[in-house]
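Writing this down once: the sequence line spells out the residues, with the fold written below as integer tokens. This is how one looks:
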Amino acid sequence: MTQALQDTPVQYIKGIGPKRAKSLARLGINTLWDALLYLPFRYEDRRVSGRISDLRYDTFQAVSGRVLSAEVKETPRGKMKIFELVITDGSGVLTGKWFNQPYLKRLFRVGDRVILSGVVKRNSYWGVGYEMHSPEFEVLEDEDTEQIHSSRIVPVYRSTGGLTTRQLRSMMYAILSHALNGLSEYMPEEILSRYRLPPLREAIQNIHFPSDRVSLEELNELRSPYHQRLAFDELFFLQAGLAALRRKMTLRRGVSSDAPGRLRSALLGMLPFSLTGAQKRVVDEIIEDMRRPYPMNRLLQGDVGSGKTVVALLAMLQAVESGYQAALMAPTEILAEQHYLNIHPLLKELGLRVALLTGSTRQRPLDEISSGQTNIVVGTHALIQGEVKFKHLGLVVIDEQHRFGVLQRAALRRKGANPDVLVMTATPIPRTLSLTMYGDLNYSVIDELPPNRRPIVTKHFRHTERGLLRGVLRGELRKGRQVYMVYPAIEDSERFDLKSVLAGEREVRAEFPEYRVGVLHGRMRPQEREETMRAFKEGEIDILVCTTVVEVGVDVPNASVMVIEHAERFGLAQLHQLRGRVGRGPYQSYCFLVTYGRLTEEARRRVEVMVKYQDGFRIAEEDFRLRGPGELFGTKQSGMPDLKVADLLRHSRLLAAARQEAFKLVEEDGELRNWPLLRQMVERFWKGKVEIFRTS
């Protein structure tokens, strides 16, 4: 029956119909199952709290009484009609007032027993007596009628135009009455028992219309056992899908890069530095994976400046020496160009051919790639276009994975016969998120920065303190250091009062006439960008005025100052990435956050976090708390299913439990054939994303 609930439109429930179904659709409620998962966002205690004479002013209370009078009154000059309902329970009198709703008079008769729920106020004219303005009400037809708007803990749903909260509650009650008996349990009993989770039917019933035994506090904090059950289910479906994806990869034959590693040794001999212990450990993990006959699927995570690129290059050399091609995909042209410029000289010395392939690349070496003459291809999304063919693609390295979707990763994998995949990110991710976004990947972390790396001094300047800031910059420039100045926009805009790169360039040239100023932004032609970055890297430019195109991948050891204009407009992850562009040489480096106008509470907190912390993982945790998982998770970009009930922050412990149980079950029963209902739920959860259980 659960399948039927997932397919039955809500309009067929009595009292809804096509018109109201359209309003429900705006809330994402199309089927009965959608409705069951549309949870109240808060709960009100409308249980009758005692006698009218015991009411307390300015508190939310509910009382029961009989109607003494129901009259519509007009204010002087007839500007407003007020419906007044006077009730008594024998101990006192309470007046309910509704403004410009005279039609309510038709609902009440003298002698009716009713319940009113609302905030208790004093009579504004007399200063004594009890009133409620626009209270919720319920007319009690007989003693046995089950009340849904009062006399209980009442659910409050987010509504939409065309539906009042009261109407929506009535519809949800009707849907629940129809659907509850059709719910079938899909979760294994032993799992529910292990985590003391209630049965599905009980959970759905008590989330929508809780019994008096349920804690109001737990309900409002969305941590009741019933919320826990539905959150666990959702996290289980997510993790079961990831477990199935990982299993699918291990069932496929892949490439085996089992070369002895001469090219890797040659590269290490050319480098002017030694690998850190963490880099060596991670290289060993990756090479061990690549030597296996099934596809590697590994995440390489490391803070800015930890040396991920050289690790990726060593992996690519392992693939090339084993007779395969390697591809490195970056999210932006400028980052792809930077990777190309950094690795090209090294690979050329090793006698290897490397090509750059972006949307702007004029010479597209497609024949050399398809014939296998090109050993390594560096590029952007252009790499996954249909015209690009590889002869023997053995390794795909994806940089800054959070900018690519799961489906894009799969598209690049299809360019070869199940090549190894190495995903890199410099964006530190809290463990709860990494278990979710990268749950189908093995995990390597470079948790050690190169030796002699000094902490970057981070300071906050208001825009009114520019004179002080100029003095600090001039001091660094006199030492021969270089400066980044990052702006949020390329040119001035009337819509947004932001400093732009073009305006900033004019100001900087006027303020520092004796120094060489360069400009870099995304609208420049690739050749211009390449030439500007080369000049900055070689010390021909003292101050680089730019947008966030320098956020990732740019490595200039002599640059010791990062100035971020309008720092209040940037997110924590981006601020941390930008700061990571300096501090790459032996000099003390600085990051100056310049803010404008009155800061929002969140912007102020972001600046405080940046000034206080250097560690990317700590910053990621703070970002997680500030923004919540929704934005960080970025389900639209990542290709992951949406979470409707679970909250990765609130339910982090549940996530770990759900992952453990899901991976264990998929390991025992790869396609969940012994659990057909559960398999159906997992497939439905992932529908439209990837086919979970198809092994071909």
Remarks:
- The longest helix spans residues 225-251.
- Residues 132 and 229 are 37 Å apart (CA to CA).
- The mean pLDDT is 86.
